[in-house]
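Progress note, sequence design subtask.
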């Protein structure tokens, strides 16, 4: 069986979708062995606990010293021996120490076209608002490798999403999220099972 570790900060809808894809074999022969979150009260953590997936809380409240923070996450991830680390709405920068250990094994999904609608501050509704205000006719779901800067890693897959004339950030967000759920599991399966 392949092993994946998921990082999530919020409600965890992509995390849930990935978990269900492992159960239905859309992602073949793979287990989620760990959920890492900076937010102990998140929907992702509560879902993981309900599914008996181990959780690990990583934040500066629990690890105020940076060296201890790095040491804790590297040790925990190494114990899991992941074939892939998957960011699913994780709102923190991944430490460079982890990136160098797992180069080309950490991926992220972004709810917009990169690099145009990415970088620090471009997350959630901020992305959808910026897309609508720019007047472009299409948004995108972009999956990319993670490097030391927000949304700058090599793009693996980009799927277009139509922006409608009457779209609000919220209505666009709903369609983008549906596309995320459809595409992320396919890409994960391709990366793991080629």
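Output:
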């Amino acid at each position: 069986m392949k092993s994946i570790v998921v990082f999530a900060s919020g409600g965890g809808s992509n995390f849930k979708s990935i978990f269900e894809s492992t159960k239905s074999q859309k992602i073949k022969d793979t287990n989620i062995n760990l959920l890492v979150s900076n937010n102990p009260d998140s929907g992702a953590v509560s879902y993981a606990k309900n599914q008996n997936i181990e959780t690990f809380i990583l934040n500066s409240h629990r690890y105020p010293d940076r060296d201890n923070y790095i040491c804790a996450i590297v040790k925990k991830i190494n114990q899991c021996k992941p074939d892939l680390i998957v960011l699913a709405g994780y709102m923190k920068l991944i430490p460079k120490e982890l990136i160098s250990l797992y180069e080309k094994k950490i991926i992220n999904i972004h709810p917009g076209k990169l690099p145009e609608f990415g970088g620090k501050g471009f997350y959630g509704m901020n992305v959808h608002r910026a897309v609508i205000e720019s007047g472009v006719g299409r948004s995108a779901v972009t999956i990319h490798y993670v490097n030391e800067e927000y949304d700058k890693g090599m793009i693996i897959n980009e799927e277009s999403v139509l922006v409608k004339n009457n779209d609000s950030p919220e209505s666009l967000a709903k369609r983008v999220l549906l596309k995320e759920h459809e595409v992320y599991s396919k890409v994960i399966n391709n990366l793991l099972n080629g």
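The mean pLDDT is 96. Work on this subtask will continue into the next period as scheduled.
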